[in-house]
Design a protein that fits this description.
The chain has 364 residues and is of the alpha+beta class. The protein has 2 domains: 277 residues, Gyrase A, domain 2; 78 residues, Elongation Factor Tu (Ef-tu), domain 3 (Beta Barrel). 21% of the residues lie in helices and 33% in strands. The chain contains 10 helices and 20 strands. The protein has a 6-stranded mixed beta sheet with strand order 11-12-13-10-4-14. A 6-stranded antiparallel β-barrel has the order 15-18-17-16-19-20. It has a 5-stranded antiparallel beta sheet with strand order 6-7-8-5-9. Strand 6 and strand 7 form a beta hairpin. The radius of gyration is 21 Å and the shape is globular.
Length: 364
């Protein structure tokens, strides 16, 4: 029996704008509004708006909130000041990533924003490990927009109103609350901009005002190529419950100090670190024409002139900005940095170059 897809408060506005709507982890979301390529370039050149109201917002309050999150998350939330945020993960006991998320320190408690794809599992895990004097509240009455691009803030000045100078002055991963608007300098594109959480009843007017300011609507397709160019992971492809943060280029999100902070998965993660991380995430660029896709095998040249499998592409696409095939890959840790690598593509071994991430420098 089929289950009806959920729709964000902007679903009608997307359809009116000509969006191609597709299923996305239980939601009906816009893939593009006619041209994924044009939307990608618009965000890189000027600015675009993404409806991310399918994301799950959870508020964590109570006297035990800090101690609870210190055990639940890889990042050290105790170091956050009010108005600061950090990116990290929830791990299972084996050190695998249940979800990646952002934690925001508010005047009262914390706010978490987690992935739509893992909502049920996340909430079950949070509830299972709920500490004393802690209250979790899912804020499904809220909507969320991501406004991204080099001119995003300038174009949004009128809509931001009196809060505009303060938002403009915020550093990365900082936020403020202006009335019922929660405005954060975060994003998933590698561009400057902000994300806003606001009452669902206000989001249609906000969307219209931002479009009128010259920002372009952008869908899931452009969001994926933008985040890949920025070297950002996608949950379910680049990491999951079988992959540790150390294997997914997320080691920087793990706060090992203080040494007595027993966050979930710490023992398994520490054991993996001590033994040597078996796989490493890297960036790859395809030599010549072609498109890289997740699931393709990465091979290393052998002394005999053949190719031996040493990894797998976890995310791949044609980069509209670089005009070449790019990918994230998970390689065996023993593969030398200078090794000759190729991807098996349509029966041929196509050379790829290992490169540093991100593929493009962030503008924020």
């Amino acid at each position: 029996m089929s289950t009806a897809l959920q729709r964000t408060p902007l679903a009608d506005a997307h359809e009116a704008a000509g969006a191609k709507m597709v299923p996305f982890f239980g939601w009906e979301m816009p893939l593009h509004y006619g041209s994924q390529l044009e939307e990608h370039h618009a965000v890189r050149a000027v600015g675009g708006i993404f409806d991310v109201s399918h994301m799950t917002v959870v508020d964590v309050v109570g006297p035990g909130a800090t101690a609870y999150l210190q055990r639940l998350l890889t990042q050290d939330v105790a170091t956050l000041k009010v108005g600061e945020a950090s990116y990290g993960a929830m791990l299972n006991e084996r050190g695998g990533v249940i979800d990646d998320l952002i934690a925001y320190r508010r005047e009262v408690g914390y706010r978490l924003v987690v992935n739509a794809a893992t909502r049920d599992r996340d909430l079950a895990w949070m509830t299972e490990h709920l500490g004393p004097d802690v209250v979790l509240t899912e804020r499904d009455e809220l909507a969320m927009l991501a406004v991204q691009g080099p001119e995003a803030l300038a174009r949004a000045q009128a809509w931001l109103g009196a809060a505009a100078p303060a938002v403009d002055a915020l550093g990365a991963f900082a936020f403020l609350e202006a009335g019922d608007r929660f405005l954060a300098r975060t994003g998933y594109t590698g561009e400057a901009g902000f994300e806003v959480i606001l009452p669902a009843g206000e989001v249609v007017d906000a969307w219209a005002a931002l479009l009128a300011a010259g920002l372009k609507p952008a869908g899931l397709g452009a969001r994926d190529t933008l985040r890949l160019e920025a070297g950002m992971n996608l949950y379910g492809q680049d990491m999951d419950e079988t992959v540790s943060p150390l294997e997914a280029n997320m080691g920087w999100t793990v706060a090992w100090a203080p040494e007595d902070r027993a966050f979930l998965g710490r023992e398994a993660l520490a054991a993996q670190k001590a033994a040597g991380v078996p796989r490493r995430q890297v960036g790859l660029r395809l030599e010549g024409k072609g498109v890289l896709r997740s699931g393709l095998t990465v091979c290393q040249a052998t002394p005999e002139g053949g190719w031996a499998p040493v990894g797998t592409l976890t995310s791949g696409a044609f980069s509209p900005t670089l005009k070449e095939g790019i990918a994230l890959a998970r390689l065996d840790a023993g593969v030398p940095k200078a090794a000759a690598l190729a991807v098996e593509l349509r029966g041929q071994f196509r050379p790829v170059q290992r490169c540093r991430l991100p593929f493009i420098k962030k503008h924020s």
